[in-house]
Design brief:
A five-stranded mixed β-sheet has the order 1-2-5-3-4. With 343 residues, it is of the alpha+beta class. Helix content is 72%, strand content 9%. The longest helix is centred in the middle third of the chain and has 96 residues. Helix 3 packs across helix 5. It has two domains: 141 residues, Helix Hairpins, CATH 1.10.287; 136 residues, OmpA-like domain (60s Ribosomal Protein L30, Chain: A), CATH 3.30.1330. InterPro entries: Bact_OuterMem_StrucFunc, OmpA-like, OmpA-like_sf. This is Peptidoglycan-binding protein. One of its GO terms (cellular component) is membrane. Keywords: Coiled coil, Membrane, Transmembrane, Transmembrane helix.
Amino acid sequence: MALARNRRRAGGVDYWPGFVDALSTLLLAIMFLLTVFVLAQFFLSREISGRDQVLNRLNSQINELTQLLALEKSSKQDLEDALANMQASLSSAEAERSRLQQLLDSGSGTADAAQQKIGALTDSLDEEKQVSARALSQVELLNQQISALRSQLAALEDALEASESKDQASQAKIADLGKRLNVALAQRVQELNRYRSDFFGRLREILAGRDDVRVVGDRFVFQSEVLFPSGGAELNPAGRQAMSQLASAILELAQEIPDEINWVLRVDGHTDNVPLSGNGQYADNWELSSARATSVVKYLISQGVPANRLVAAGFGEFQPIAEGDSPEARATNRRIELKLTER
């Protein structure tokens, strides 16, 4: 490879491939940044949406518990007021009983009536005590319920704080993931560009001096007349020779590219805009362009190139590189393009 590069330097400085590589790298970097931005937005929106649902559910539970707590407090206040009234009635009844007892002790004529009244007051006093005891039990139960509600509120507030903290941590992880993806994909792009440059250099050496092979952007372009007969998709002898040289270059490069780079060689078939006659083997230019691309791929496979590293595509006459209907423009548009790219 070093000798080949020295020979290229000796033949003159070729700036065009470097410009093409730089332009390709810039385009891939822009596509990569857009991809990372879309991924980050997708993960962030999904994470935030989930956190918002949890926060809304927790806020709803807190509101419900707050309302229940207010109702329990109101019930407790009513029971405490009733208990105070009962205790006041109890004190009044005890005072009345004491007064009657004094009358009983001081007078003999009204003893029986006073004794009856004292008995009635004693029964009433016992009932008031029972009611007061039940009220105290209810107040105690309400106190326990209020304590439980306060514990639930505290637990929900802790869960809410933990959820907010986890949301912030998730956002930080997403940002870090985006940075790491950026670095990893940038490295992949640089590696693929380096191997693409080596591949282009080897093809230039193999195909040096041939006017029927051109470089257009990041693609090698073969004119269809060199590879196929008119209207056909079977490689002619010159086409098989050119594809055999191409297969050798691909196999050498495949040994150098790391396994983690998922590269493919894309073979694109293109035709001119002249419709095919209905008596031919192919119905239209779509079928012809696809058949020619497939024919190249199958021949490369027969030369040992792994099938999973090849892609065939037909574009018919709908991707011209020369405008117009002149014979020269149509000849330029009848072509096979080769591009080394990542799957």
